[in-house]
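S1.2 Input.
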Amino acid sequence: MSLDQPETKPHEQLAAHLAPQMQAVNALIRDRMASKHAPRIPEVTAHLVEAGGKRVRPMLVLAAARMCGYEGPFDIHLAATVEFIHTATLLHDDVVDESSQRRGRPTANLLWDNKSSVLVGDYLFARAFQLMVEPGNLRVLEILSNAAATIAEGEVLQLTAAQDLATDEGIYLQVVRGKTAALFSAATEAGGVIAGAPEAQVQALFDYGDALGIAFQIVDDLLDFQGDSQSTGKNVGDDFRERKLTLPLIKAIAKADADERAFWVRTIERGKQEAGDLDHAIALLHKHGALDATRAEALAWAARSKSALSTLPESPLRQMLIDLADYVVARIN
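S1.3 Output.
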């Protein structure tokens, strides 16, 4: 059966397997995003939280904890925490990127304003820290608070690296590990820690989340140039228009001749883009095999994430996480 059939999609299998826990997570999210004094907060938050996101990150917390035998209540708090952190970063990202579309819907900053998006994002970060304290586990608090700092650091690094043609694949990986993979790995690692799993299993869960997050972002960057806006919820070429040096561009620029480099300097470094530039950029990506090479890297990171789980005991949840890694890259197969 195809991965595209709803009943076989790994994230939907996870959601079905973890349905009681996810219901508790969703109830906690609705409760904690409320505000007695500022009705704008639940309005803005609900617009994004209820926009049809897959809730992969909170499910990773639950799956990791339950796979390691956890039966307590606090994985629910940690799952809600990572969803709040994720939602806060989306609100801030859309302001920074001046985006108009998120998950196929108008962004909060477009419907309300930048001030509301930034301040509600701040509120959700604060709520996340309140939630992560409640389990009373200092190591979990350290993991999630470090992740929040790493995400912000990755976003700032991207600001300085995004339009600098000297940005190489090492810097790109550092950005991706910060802005995307940090929350994936924190989710899986925190799940193992709250369950009291052996250190080798906690490390394996971290490695899985790290590699899965990197694969996820590489796929996202690849689909920006060859995806379908209806399925991705983004406009094709947004990264080029926003002058973001993602992996496909970095690979093409590394092989550019003098004329091609002048094109990249004009469009990316100087931001002087003209009609037809996106088509020319995509043609250069094909010319230098940048899209195929990027696809190969995404597949390699997905394979690395699956390999990390080999130290964990066999279980339906472990298989679902393995299938999830395949599904992340299935969009580019």
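S1.4 Remarks. The beta strands are 101-102, 105-106.
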